């Protein structure tokens, strides 16, 4: 008889509770749901659990990892595709394995197309004007995707889903990826930058992709091009992006993620002073859309994340590969 598997779930939000209770019961595991994010001070709540789950919304620092190790944690599954919020190097040194989840790529792909359409049609300006009872048309006419070349940077599950959706709009698609997949034609990064009317980012944030869109890359982009980022904020040199938007090099941007978003996104900052060096400038620009890392936020993804977390923890406990 296999032993009972226990999972401590840190950063469990109210709308996650039902999913955790339902799927843990169905899977025969025991979960301890903790509202607060994992930290050095509450790591002891994981005592007796080799496996824990964390949210992507809070950094998991080295000191937190040391405390979790002392509590007996051997495996951390983050409820996200990326793991850049975890000090991976320290986790490795401590012998703590880190896993990620796979969820519906349609969530981010759909949202990416939404941002694309909003960007090229000047939707932000239209909404802001109509809210002030100004019903005049925008001074600049919108563009149609069928007349554009879209560069997709990153062709994993989400990037491929974006490409499939773009086919329906009749636009030309260029693709670039460090690791190539069959069935997709790939272009050189310089060609993609030179020829795309719009570029959308779908690559993980790792050492080699930090600021993959920087000053030099922006200089290579077409004048008036649009940049869409639903990947990770630090894929883009935000200072260089702001400069390019101010001087008219780029036609606009739609950002669901932002370099330095930590402590701002997912928080109510109405009565707070935000010290981010570029956020207020970006939000004042009529051709820039900023949303708070919400592309993944669907009902389906919630179930996918919980289900995949449980599966990963079970695999780890039972010594299976790809935990």
Number of helices: 11
Total domains, how many?
2
In the CATH classification, which architecture of the largest domain applies? 3-Layer(aba) Sandwich
Average pLDDT figure = 95
Helicity, in percent?
25-40%
Strand order of the largest sheet: 7-6-8-9-10-11
* Structure class: alpha/beta
**Helix and strand sequence:** EHEEHEHEHHEHEHEHEHEHEH
Cα radius of gyration in angstroms: 21 Å
Low-confidence runs (pLDDT<50, min 5 residues)?
none
- Any idea of the CATH class of the largest domain? Alpha Beta
Query: Strand share of the residues?
Result: 5-15%
Using the coordinates shown, work out and report the CATH topology of the largest domain: Rossmann fold
Strand count, sense and barrel status of the largest sheet are: 6 strands, parallel
- How many β-strands, per DSSP? 11
Report the end-to-end length measured between terminal Cα atoms.
21 Å
Q: Give the overall shape.
A: globular
Can you walk through the features of this model?
With 323 residues, the protein is α/β, with parallel strands linked by helices. The protein folds into 2 domains: 6-103 and 299-317, NAD(P)-binding Rossmann-like Domain (Rossmann fold); 105-290, 3-Layer(aba) Sandwich (Rossmann fold). Helices cover 35% and strands 15% of the residues. It is built from 11 helices and 11 strands. It has helices at 14-27, 62-70, 88-93, 105-120, 123-131, 157-167, 189-195, 215-220, 238-246, 279-284, 299-317, and strands at 6-9, 30-33, 51-54, 75-78, 97-99, 149-153, 172-176, 198-201, 225-229, 250-255, 288-290. The strands form 2 sheets. The chain has a 6-stranded parallel beta sheet with strand order 7-6-8-9-10-11, with helices on both faces. Helix 3 (88-93) links the parallel strand 4 (75-78) and strand 5. Helix 1 packs across helix 11 (299-317) and helix 4 (105-120) crosses helix 6 (157-167). The radius of gyration is 21 Å and the shape is globular.
């Amino acid at each position: 008889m296999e032993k009972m598997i226990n999972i401590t779930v840190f950063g469990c939000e109210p709308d996650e509770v039902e999913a955790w209770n339902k799927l843990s019961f169905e899977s025969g595991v025991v979960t301890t749901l903790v509202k607060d994010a994992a930290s050095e001070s509450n790591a002891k709540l994981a005592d007796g659990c080799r496996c824990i789950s964390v949210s992507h919304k809070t950094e998991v620092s080295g000191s937190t990892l040391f405390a979790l190790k002392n509590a007996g944690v051997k495996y951390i599954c983050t409820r996200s595709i990326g793991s850049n919020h975890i000090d991976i190097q320290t986790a490795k040194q401590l012998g703590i394995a880190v896993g990620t989840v796979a969820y519906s790529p349609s969530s981010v792909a759909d949202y990416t197309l939404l941002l694309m359409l909003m960007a090229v049609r000047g939707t932000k300006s239209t909404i802001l004007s109509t809210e002030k009872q100004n019903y005049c048309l925008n001074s600049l006419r919108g563009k149609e995707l069928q007349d554009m070349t879209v560069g997709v940077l990153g062709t994993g599950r989400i990037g491929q889903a974006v490409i499939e959706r773009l086919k329906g709009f009749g636009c030309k698609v260029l693709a670039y990826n460090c690791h190539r997949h069959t069935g997709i034609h790939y272009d050189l990064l310089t060609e993609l930058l030179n020829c795309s009317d719009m570029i959308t980012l779908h690559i993980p944030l790792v050492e080699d992709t930090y600021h993959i869109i920087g000053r030099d890359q922006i200089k290579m982009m077409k004048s008036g091009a649009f940049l869409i980022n639903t990947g990770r904020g630090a894929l883009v040199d935000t200072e260089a992006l702001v400069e390019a938007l101010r001087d008219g090099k780029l036609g606009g941007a739609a950002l669901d993620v932002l370099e330095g978003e930590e402590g701002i996104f997912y928080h109510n900052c109405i009565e707070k002073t935000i010290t981010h060096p570029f956020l207020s400038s970006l939000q004042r620009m009529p051709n820039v859309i900023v949303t708070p890392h919400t592309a993944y936020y669907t009902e389906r993804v919630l179930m996918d994340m919980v289900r995949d977390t449980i599966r990963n923890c079970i695999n780890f406990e039972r010594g299976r590969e790809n935990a």
